[in-house]
Amino acid sequence: MVGFNGSVRLNLALQGGGVHGAFTWGVLDRLLQEDRLEIGWVSGTSAGAVNAVALAAGLAEGGRAGARDKLATVWHSVHKAGVPDLMRFNPFLYSLSRLPAVAQMAGLFSPYEFNPMGFDPLRRLLSDNINFEQLRRASPIGLIISATEVRTGRARHFRSGELAVEAVLASACLPTLHHAVEIDGRAYWDGGFSANPDLVTLAGESPVRDTLIVQLNPTTIGGVPTGVREISDHANTLTFNAPLLRDVEIIETARKTIRASWLPARGGMARLARHRFHLVEAGRYTGALKPDSKMQPDRGVLSYLFGAGRMEASKWIEKHLSDVGRRSSVCFQQRYLSAGALSDGDLLPDPEPIEADAGGISVGPAERQIA
Fold first, then answer.
1. Could you tell me which residue, 364 or 147, shows the higher pLDDT?
2. CB–CB of 23/285 below 8 Å?
3. CB 181 within 8 A of CB 135
């Protein structure tokens, strides 16, 4: 969709992935530098939800520059918080999480046992940095934050007008680490189980007809995992990629149905079939990291992923920004559904030189360095 000033408008669909969401931070930071591009609606799950509300809050407070600063502040806070679960308050459990030989024992403990009070450091991080009242009243972009209802397994989509800190906590609630989040008498777990990220609702409700998907999890891997932790990690990846693949199949089915029909295409199915999609992937970078990197916001990991996100966004802008408003730049059938689906490519080293200092995270370009 072309804006009034000749710019193009683009929705964003942000996948969850814990600390790997720093890749999305890099993507957003680069997109915000493009005056030719305006952000429409944003669908976000888990870490994608955190990025989504930080983006919206920053835009509301200070435009593009404010959004870049807000995202940097949030991720700096993630880094300062350290291991983002309550195991860090229990030396025994924390040691289990860091030692591969015994890490599986951590699964013996419920968050209701090692964290009976239900303390979640993400609550304070969000409350300190995001003005949810302002977003409910007048968010500069449409928001769809997804969580999973525990009882039914169905997705619940929280829109801009009903956002509160609990909605984002619910979207990011891994049940092995945190208590279920209760909203209006219903319990919720991580949105990644049911919508990661949601594409169908976004395409159906947003007036903008182009969506850029930022995918964090690898779609394919090089071989069959054989180690206990590697098997567990890939099983989790399959689980959290399944909702994305389901939405892709729904969209492709709508497209096939419309093409096969001799009747004029109308309604929601036609809208879905005609929506244009684009893709930026992190798989070659996140796949090069250790499985526990999703839960350990070390300075080096954040810098690596931020730089990778900026670089991949720059590549996409150069190759495909001109496609927005005209055609999709990703073929779902080839990328996800065919027997010989395209791979994520070879795992790559650091995308650009990253330096770290004792004062904080160096995140690539000098202007984004966090002191």
1. 147
2. yes
3. no
- Comparing CA positions, the residue from 200, 205, 230 lying closest to residue 218 is 230
Are the beta carbons of 41 and 208 closer than 8 angstroms? yes
Q: Rounded to an integer, what distance in angstroms lies between the CA atom of residue 169 and that of residue 173?
A: 6
Which pLDDT value is given to residue 101? 44
Positive or negative, the CA dihedral 247, 249, 252, 253 is: negative
Distance, in Å, from the CA atom of 61 to the CA atom of 34, rounded to the nearest integer, reads 19
pLDDT tens digits, one per residue of 158-172: 999 999 999 999 999
Cα–Cα distance between 349 and 252 in angstroms, integer? 34
Q: What is the pLDDT of residue 335?
A: 87
**What is the DSSP secondary structure assignment for residue 13, as one 8-state letter?**
E
Q: b/e per residue, 185-211, with b = 16+ CB within 10 A?
A: eebbbbbbbbbbbbbbbbbebbebbbb
For the question of whether the overall pTM of this predicted structure is more than 0.70, the answer is yes
β-partners of residue 148 are 155, 189
In angstroms, the CA 230 to CA 341 distance is 22
CA distance 76 to 300: 12
pLDDT digits (tens, 9 = 90+) for 270-282: 889 999 999 999 9
Instruction: Say how many C-beta atoms besides its own lie within 10 A of residue 298's C-beta.
Output: 15
Pairing of strands 142-149, 37-45: parallel
Q: What are phi and psi of 330, to 5 degrees?
A: -130, 135
**Are the beta carbons of 194 and 154 closer than 8 angstroms?**
yes
Tokens read off for 224: 């069959």
Cis peptide bond upstream of 197, omega within 30: yes
Q: Residue 89 is encoded by which pair of tokens?
A: 């308050």
Structure tokens at 286: 């996140």
Tokens of 78: 């993630």
Distance CA 141, CA 26 (A): 19
The alpha-carbon radius of gyration of the chain (Å, integer) is: 20
